[in-house]
Amino acid sequence: MKPHLHFTADHDDAVARTKAITAGGLAIFAVESAGGRLGACNRHGCPEVFVDTSRNGRRAYCSARCGNYEAVRRHRSAV
């Protein structure tokens, strides 16, 4: 019998099981594959995280919307 990990109890509801399995999958992904490519959005107040798929690995925002928001904010503060 191979060792294995239980993320949640068998009797938990579908939502709890889905959340636990998703969190476990993310943990495995972070450790085994591209953990260094995980990032947090640089926009103030944005709680999102993302996988950086850019060539140079310097992605700063979770979406173009957050990047544009920060660019507009910087422009307005400079004026």
Task: Please provide a written account of the structure.
With 79 residues, this protein is mostly helical. It has a domain at 36-79. Helices cover 46% and strands 8% of the residues. It has two helices and two strands. It has helices at 14-34, 64-78, and strands spanning 38-40, 49-51. The chain has a two-stranded antiparallel sheet. The radius of gyration is 18 Å and the shape is elongated. The chain starts with 13 loop residues before the first helix and ends with a helix. The mean pLDDT is 85.
Summarize the structure.
The chain has two helices and two strands, in the order αββα.
Write the layout of secondary structure elements.
Layout: H1 14-34, E1 38-40, E2 49-51, H2 64-78
Antiparallel strand pairs: 1-2
The biggest beta sheet reads:
2 strands, antiparallel
Computed CA radius of gyration, to the nearest angstrom: 18 Å
Mean pLDDT: 85
- Tell me the fraction of residues in β-strands, as a range: 5-15%
Helix content: 40-55%
Protein structure class: mainly alpha
Distance between the termini: 67 Å
Count of runs of 4 or more consecutive helical residues: 2
Tell me the total number of β-strands.
2
Query: Outline, from the CA principal axes?
Result: elongated
Can you list the strand order of the major beta sheet? Answer: 1-2
What is the helix/strand order? HEEH
What are the segments in which pLDDT stays under 50 over at least 5 consecutive residues?
none
